[in-house]
Amino acid sequence: MPDDKQLRFPNRKERKKLVDDLKNLGQDPNVASNEYYKRYTESIEKLDKKMDELSAVDESGIPKDLTAEDTASLSQAMIDTAEMAEMFIASSVAAGMKPDQGAPGVVNNLQGMLSRDYETIQNYDPSTPKSLPELLEDSRTRTIDLRGRQLGSVTNMQNSRIPMTVVNSKGEKRKGVFTKANYFNAEKEYKDLIEKAKSQCTRDSDKAKLDAFLGEFKKKNLGIRLPDDGRLSADSPDSMVIGTLVRKLYAQHGGEKLERDDIRLEFARAGIDPSTLPRKALNVLTEGFTKFKDSIGMEMNTINLKLDEGSRLDNRNTAMSSVATLLGTPDLIARSENMKFIGEDGKVTEGTFMDHAKGVDLYKKPHLFKHVNTSPFGLDDNKGRVLKQIADLQVLDYICMNKDRHPGNIFYEV
Description:
Layout: H1 4-7, H2 12-25, H3 29-32, H4 35-55, H5 68-94, H6 102-122, H7 132-140, E1 142-145, H8 152-156, E2 161-167, E3 173-180, H9 186-198, H10 204-220, H11 238-253, H12 260-269, H13 279-294, H14 296-302, H15 316-326, E4 336-342, E5 348-355, H16 370-374, H17 380-400
Parallel strand pairs: 1-4
Antiparallel strand pairs: 2-3, 3-5, 4-5
Helix pairs in contact: 2-6, 4-5, 5-6, 9-13, 11-13, 12-13
């Protein structure tokens, strides 16, 4: 008999918990008195019942394939639920509640889940039939089984960005790049580096200096301004302190390789005498901090988001692509989706696939800027469309807290 995950849509357990949380919050008179609260809870329970019915299995434990009528009915139920959600959140905010807290916050989270499901249902092609659980699982992660194919070299995936072409269920080819899953491990990588440096020390006093460095660096830099206009404080986690250190090294040395004297200087500035630290230990730190410095783009984009250690980073592209679709601008950025490969040995490699971006990179072709000075982007109609899309991109970046937008990662296609 298939397990519950096969019978239900993938986020069923999380959704159910949120609905239960919403019911508990309904004990608050301010929530219960909102006319849209009851209408929303009834609407989402009706939707869940419909999804359960469409996920039901036969005697063999197999759920039925979705028909065009099923998807039309399901889409309408999702639209009805979304309308009630908007009404509830708007009326709650008008009553003085915060949209990201309490009952409105729970509804926001529920609708975030449903928005992805709605997009999946809308793109479903009944000519390539799938069951609802299968469809929703596939929408979150495209799986490509390479076993038995002449693609062995791809399964090694040594590079972080691998050009490839994938074919969808309609036979359409999409060119793009696959990025292996990467994770936010600032604290672990730093601790591993310190332990490696300590292995080159024979004196306990030198090992103690290495252990104390991050804490002393933090003390010396309390109040330093961070990229999000925040400041390093006594309560800042180690990951934020590490990010601040990396940014400081980058600012001082740019793209140049760090030297041992640079590391000695940082220890001295932190109030720690580096004179007795072994050269081999300093070499380890120099190499390690240089590697940290090379990932400054990732650090600047993530360190102040208060991510948990071990959080996955690459699928933020998928999330941003979904937000662009929800805002009505699906073609504004290159489409991304979660993807995993199953290799010949059965090993699974997870990551994200991003479509190839079209257009001209003006950053690499500065001679084209001369056309912008006289008549921006050509005809007035083109100019208006391009300027609006630039504004839309700014809104998208603001909502998604993307801090890495610059002339070098924008393509123009007029």
